[in-house]
Amino acid sequence: MNKDKILTAAQMAVVADINNMTCDRITALTGGHGMINMSIYAVSNVIAEELLRGGDISMKSTDSRHLPVDDIMRKAIDAAKAAGADAANAGLVAASIMYLCGTAAQVGIPAGNRKLGAMARMIAGVDRCGVAAMPTAKMNNKISGFAAVMAIYRAMEEGKLCSINGRNVPQLVAGGPVYGHSALGEDFVWPEMARNGARIGTQAMLDTMAGAAIHPHPFTAAIYGAAAILEIIHPDAEVPEECGAYGSMSSAYLVGKSAAETAGLPEKLHVKVSGEEYETAKLIGDIGLLLKDIGGVSVIGMMAFDEIFSIFQEGIAGFSGSPINAPLGHIGAYCVIALKMLLQSNGDITTVAKQIANERFATAIDGENAMLCINTITVRSKEISNGPVTQTLIEATEPTKVNAVYRRANLAYEMLSAGERVEVVVRKLDDERLATVENGSNRIFSDMFQKDIKIKFRRIEKGARRTNKLAKKYLSFDPMIDVDITVDGWKHQLDGFVHDLVPKIAKGEREDLAEIAIPIAGAVDDILLSAHTILNATVPAAVAVAMGIATPEEAAKQVESGAYVTLGIPGGKAAALDVGKRALAMIEYMGE
Question: Is the pLDDT of residue 245 over 70?
């Protein structure tokens, strides 16, 4: 047999259909089923194309029915809809990304006043729903902005939101410029209500999340607390001079500052790769203003929103900017990062691609898998919307994919030639994956906690507590995991980490393990989400079939038996069968 032909046929079979790169249902994602992160890519391509050819997304206080930003917003929303988002979610995604690219959250008072969220909602053609009806992203469970709204209204009813009693405001003063643009409103009422309302609303969100068995999420609490009070107070009002310069700071800033402080967010945020700095108070106030006007978004819309704001080094939101490799429905952070970098570099795709590749390898637990995740979702997104952003991400990640496929194919060929079975090859690759997660977690979390942390998995099996066939067959549904963690020389042996110890920690029965559970959980998450990239299964199957060692059906069956880490959810056997059939067709055509 000709090795070159075998490896060529196998590798081409593996990459011929992007669906065979993953167990995630990425074709469904293009219709918005499950997640709408494809819309992030579509919107980013539109904005990149428009701005790189001189378009203008600035909002200006001008006496005009339309601005250039309206046309770009419309194109972005249409692109998001084509990528699977409904109208409200399309408006949210477009407005959020445009804000991060420099569009102001608000301009002008009173006539001709423009707000980014309202503009997106009107162009999308959806109704406003109010903060109380807006859900948060899913964090296992999810709540809504009702918690913030209820707390603020209760404080108003009890006279705790503001020291000024409305009954004492004279007629004609109320509702006019004597109140609205002078001392009463600008120096007393709105600064007090901004600070108190944002604090009360944010704290209510934190407390309600905790009550819903959700680990309180500071960014989410802050933006909903901000949005809830900005529904009530004058969001364009000037502030006392000691709070900021006249004409450059509004009540929304005071809201953002109070919400951010209550949530415990850092004062400054920095974009990954570029290092661009944002003031957190302004960001939270602006996003609260955007959300209160945006319309009836859904949970998956807010999940996409979270991934857009996963671009910050401080890790305030989302999944796809974190060290852990997320399911493909979450991947979106580096799309927005690529967009911002392209705008800064005047469209230098090659330079931006290299910068993103270097950063992602450095910050992920498993850099290779991180790049493969981005590649897979970008290739699928490119079919809906191609442009500078998708081109950049493919240029950044394609070399990793080529090397990853070749390395596995060559190893499989050598082991199979030596007489090993397909499942042994797959298990070796999964052993390597496990070691990569251990080493990457040690590096990431040692740096994060400023301690010497070493994680070692002693046992990874299926069906820890359930007896049904699905749980016994697929790791991610009911994992039995025993792990050792050594922190600054102190070793802890933890058996049944997922099904036994984590519930005890959450119930307060093992407070001694709460801190050391964090790095372990990070490593476990990366393992249990491995099915986003299944080269460890598909490549050996393709090579075995191309070599004539196994039929496609035999190879697929052995792959499922050996991939104890990679195939944590269903779908891998079907993918292995498909690549096996493709490899067979190719090798037969090539004369082997």
Answer: no
Question: Residue 461 carries which side chain, given as an amino acid letter?
Answer: E
Confidence of residue 30 (pLDDT cuts 50, 70, 90): very high
Kindly state the percentage of the chain with pLDDT values over 70.
98
Between CA 137 and CA 60 the distance in angstroms is 32
User: 3-state DSSP call for residue 240?
Assistant: coil
95 phi, psi to nearest 5 deg: -65, -40
pLDDT of residue 592: 63
Contact 168, 188 (CB under 8 A): no
Q: How crowded is residue 398: how many other Cβ atoms within 10 Å of its Cβ?
A: 16
Identify the residue whose tokens are 């899913």: 138
The reported pTM is: 0.95
Residues 389-399: tens digit of each pLDDT: 999 999 999 99
Strand partners, 455: 485
Span 250-257, average pLDDT:
92
Q: Three-state SS across 168-215?
A: HCCCCCCCCHHHHCCHHHHHHHHHHHHHHHHHHHHHHHHHHHHHCCCC
Q: Is the pLDDT of residue 116 over 90?
A: yes
Q: How far apart are CA 195 and CA 229, in angstroms?
A: 9
Binned at pLDDT 50, 70 and 90, residue 437 comes out as very high
- CA distances for 116 relative to 37, 67, 392, 477, angstroms: 21, 12, 28, 42
pLDDT(440) > 80: yes
Tell me if 165 sits within 8 A of 155, measured CB to CB: no
Say if residues 474 and 569 touch (Cβ distance below 8 Å): yes
Assigned token pair, 253: 């800033």
First to last CA, the chain: 7
As to burial, measured by CB atoms within 10 angstroms (0-12 exposed, 13-18 middle, 19+ buried), residue 545 is: buried
Is residue 562 within 8 Å of residue 431, measured between CB atoms? no
Mean pLDDT of 365-376: 97
Cβ contact 208:143 at 8 Å: yes
Strand partners, 459: 482
> How far apart are the C-alpha atoms of 93 and 188, rounded to whole Å?
36
**pLDDT reading at 111 higher than 90:** no
Nearest to 560 by CA among 479, 464, 472: 472
Q: Do 18 and 532 meet the contact criterion of CB atoms below 8 Å apart? A: no
> Coil, strand, or helix at residue 115?
strand
Task: Please report, for residues 84, 226, 229, 339, 474, the alpha-carbon distance to residue 120 in angstroms, rounded to integers and kept in the order given.
Answer: 17, 19, 21, 20, 43
Report which residue type is found at 227. Answer: A
Residue whose tokens read 């800064």: 344
For 124-180, give the DSSP string. Answer: HT-----GGGPBPPPBSB--BTHHHHHHHHHHHHTT-S-SS-GGGSPTTTTTSHHHH
User: 558 CB contacts (<8 Å, ≥6 apart)?
Assistant: 421, 422, 423, 426, 541, 544, 550
Look up residue 179 and give its amino acid: Y
Q: Does residue 90 contact residue 81 with C-beta atoms inside 8 Å?
A: yes
Residues contacting 508, CB < 8 A, separation 6+: none
What confidence tens digit (pLDDT) does each residue in 543-556 have?
999 999 999 999 99
Task: Write down the residue that tokens 């709204």 correspond to.
Answer: 149
Q: Which pLDDT tens digit goes with each residue over 490-536? A: 999 999 999 999 999 999 999 999 999 999 999 999 999 999 999 99
